[in-house]
TrEMBL record:
Gene coding for it: Dvir\GJ10158
Domain Orotidine 5'-phosphate decarboxylase: 32-252
Protein name (record): Uridine 5'-monophosphate synthase
EC number(s) per entry: 2.4.2.10, 4.1.1.23
UniProt family annotation: In the C-terminal section; belongs to the OMP decarboxylase family. In the N-terminal section; belongs to the purine/pyrimidine phosphoribosyltransferase family.
GO biological process: 'de novo' pyrimidine nucleobase biosynthetic process; 'de novo' UMP biosynthetic process
Membrane-spanning intervals of the chain: none
Keyword set, alphabetical order: Decarboxylase, Glycosyltransferase, Lyase, Multifunctional enzyme, Pyrimidine biosynthesis, Transferase
Binding site for substrate: 38, 60, 155, 216, 236-237
Any one GO molecular function term: orotate phosphoribosyltransferase activity
Organism encoding this protein: Drosophila virilis
Part of the whole protein covered: 227 to 492 of 492
Length: 266
């Protein structure tokens, strides 16, 4: 199964150039931690990115929660991504018809396609969502340098995704002419897809298992990697709210990486 293979070997199987890049980055930098930088001030995000940069392979943003968003925020964030060697993912969770997502991705205040290596999208509208996103690219933002993670499951309790939706999401991620744009799948379990060239991104990770007040469900780093098939664990508040951010980020990195090493060694 894909979970027994190393990130290096999976890089060679990836159809998406960005997935290939990310798998290789994870293997070289030895980290499978993604920071969910869910803060509403640009400077606070940049500070977190600088502190956690050495320990992460990916930094995930929700730009629409940044109260003082500006172009210089993006320039500074990109500089930190280069300095510390991590990729940027805008967790936009696109969910509309192809034409609309194309505009939302390329236009507006945030011009996501200009700076985000990766974005997320729901599969609810069907495969036209992948085509719509690709349609926004061209010229400097070539489809070769961008990719999407499709949501096949969610961590929220009571979410409406069922087995059929999961299976069909897997088909969109692995079949058809646009699979080179699909870098991975956001999901909670290893049975979401089998193709080893895709990356499983799993949010809802915290050292203390449990729930928050708004339906978020948490599992430990070891559990998501060894039992649930996560290739990258996403940690937000587990790091953001820690009294020592650097130490905590390092500890999440260590635990996620050790779990991966145990997984591929068996
Ligand atoms: O199913 C999901 C998918 C995502 S991308 N559940 C999630 O929680 N997320 C995102 O992961 C969510 O939008 C947030 O940015 C992060 C989890 O943050 P935390 O603070 O709960 O760790």
């Amino acid at each position: 199964s894909r979970t027994k293979l190393t990130y290096e070997s999976r890089a060679n199987l990836a159809k998406s150039p960005v997935a290939k890049r990310l798998f290789n980055l994870m293997a070289t930098k030895q980290t499978n931690l993604c920071l969910a930088a869910d803060l509403s001030e640009a400077d606070a995000i940049l500070d977190m990115a600088d502190k956690c940069g050495p320990y992460i392979c990916l930094l995930k943003t929700h730009v629409d929660i940044v109260s003082d968003f500006s172009e210089s925020f993006i320039v500074n964030l990109q500089a930190l991504a280069t300095r510390h060697n991590f990729l940027l993912m805008e967790d936009r969770k696109f969910a509309d018809i192809g034409n609309t997502v194309s505009l939302q991705y390329g236009q507006g205040l945030y011009k996501i396609a200009n700076w985000a290596d990766l974005v997320t999208a729901h599969t609810l509208p069907g495969r036209s969502i992948v085509q719509g996103l690709k349609a926004a690219l061209g010229g400097a933002n070539s489809a070769k340098e961008r990719g999407v993670f499709l949501l096949a499951e969610m961590s929220a309790s009571g979410n409406l995704i069922d087995e059929k939706y999961k299976e069909n999401s897997n088909k969109i991620a692995t079949e058809g002419g646009d699979v080179d744009f699909v870098a991975g799948v956001v999901c909670q379990s290893a049975d979401c897809f089998a193709f080893p060239g895709l990356i499983q991104l799993t949010p809802g990770v915290k050292i203390d298992e449990g729930v928050d007040k708004l339906g978020q469900q948490y599992q430990t780093p070891e559990h998501v990697v060894k039992e649930r098939g996560a290739d990258i664990g996403v940690v937000g508040r587990g790091i953001l709210q820690a009294s020592n951010v650097e130490k905590t980020a390092a500890s999440y990195r260590d635990r996620l990486w050790a779990a991966y090493q145990e997984r591929v060694a068996k």
